[in-house]
């Protein structure tokens, strides 16, 4: 089967225009919904390259999350690898309750987010949120945040407002993610003290030696655990048990996705190049994902992947 891989950046158009055509009867083509997030972009590309080697065609449709979820319920999207909990819980759970979609597997689990400090600051005595105020002057009384209106920023502002863990006289410096990291980079290069919003997976965890602070006083700004679900239409298992098996086994370590994001977002390498290179260097992991999975013609999937992508 001819390999096809499309990327659409048309999230403002109606979904039916973007993925026009008859409904897929036998899933010869697997249609991914991909929000514009580096981690999900590379994760979808890795899965697509494996499926291409197995004889499937793939489409990667770059869309807003709401459009993707609607697509899963209207036979326009087959796979969503970015079901981020708890952030998207209120969007996805009603669809699960209505038996329209299935949370197939946790493709990323136990991901951490919250306030971080450089490891040298941790070694100097800052272990939890409660330790920050003891060294307020070293931090200039500031917490570096990301875009205004985001959940973690709101949590920090709430902690300041309620004087949680002694943060009542601190200031949240809101900016863009890139500006926050540029500021942190400068401080870290000079071994100055800084605390900022961190999360996994992200390239910051590759570039810097960071310590995720422990929570204190139920501040809500540290030790925030997240899970990323693979979400598919309810009928996928009956339509294609082979694809369903692969997706149920497609689970990524945080370290691997950190590396993917670093190469794609920080080093600005093409997603397909990052994916193919990683696959060739990690066949043991790929073999676990493809255990019991076959090509469209019934051959072991791992053999087809090695034959197509080489070593």
Automatic annotation (TrEMBL):
Pfam families: OpuAC. SUPFAM superfamilies: Periplasmic binding protein-like II. The keyword Iron does not apply. InterPro entries: ABC_choline_sub-bd, ABC_Gly_betaine_transp_sub-bd. It comes from the Bacteria. Keywords: Signal. Residues 28-280 form the ABC-type glycine betaine transport system substrate-binding domain. Residues 1-25 form the signal peptide. The keyword Lipid metabolism does not apply. This is ABC transporter substrate-binding protein. It comes from Chromohalobacter beijerinckii.
């Amino acid at each position: 089967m001819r390999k096809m891989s499309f990327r659409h950046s048309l999230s403002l158009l109606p979904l039916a225009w973007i993925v026009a055509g008859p409904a897929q009867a036998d899933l010869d083509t697997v249609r991914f919904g991909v929000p514009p997030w580096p981690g999900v972009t590379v994760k979808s590309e890795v899965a697509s390259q494996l499926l291409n080697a197995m004889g499937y065609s793939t489409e990667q449709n770059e869309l807003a999350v709401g459009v993707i979820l609607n697509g899963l319920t209207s036979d326009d999207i087959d796979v969503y690898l970015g079901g981020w909990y708890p952030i998207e819980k209120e969007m996805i759970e009603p669809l699960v309750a209505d038996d329209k979609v299935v949370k197939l597997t946790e493709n990323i689990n136990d991901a951490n987010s919250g306030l971080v400090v450089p490891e040298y600051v941790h070694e100097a005595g800052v272990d939890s949120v409660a330790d920050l105020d003891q060294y307020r002057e070293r931090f200039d009384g500031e917490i570096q945040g990301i875009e205004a209106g985001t959940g973690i920023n709101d949590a920090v502002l709430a902690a300041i407002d309620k004087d949680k863990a002694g943060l009542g006289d601190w200031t949240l410096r809101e900016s863009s993610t890139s500006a926050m990291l540029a500021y942190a980079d400068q401080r870290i290069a000079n071994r100055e003290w800084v605390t900022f919003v961190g999360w996994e997976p992200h390239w910051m965890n590759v570039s810097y030696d960071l310590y995720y602070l422990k929570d204190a006083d139920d501040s809500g700004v540290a030790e925030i655990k997240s899970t990323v679900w693979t979400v598919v239409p309810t009928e996928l298992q009956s339509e294609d048990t082979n694809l369903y098996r692969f997706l149920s086994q497609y689970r990524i370590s945080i370290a691997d996705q950190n590396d993917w994001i670093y190469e794609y977002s920080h080093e600005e390498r093409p997603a397909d190049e990052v994916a193919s290179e990683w696959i060739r260097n990690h066949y043991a992991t790929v073999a676990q994902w493809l255990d019991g999975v076959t090509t469209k013609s019934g051959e072991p999937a791992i053999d087809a992947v090695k034959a197509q992508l080489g070593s």
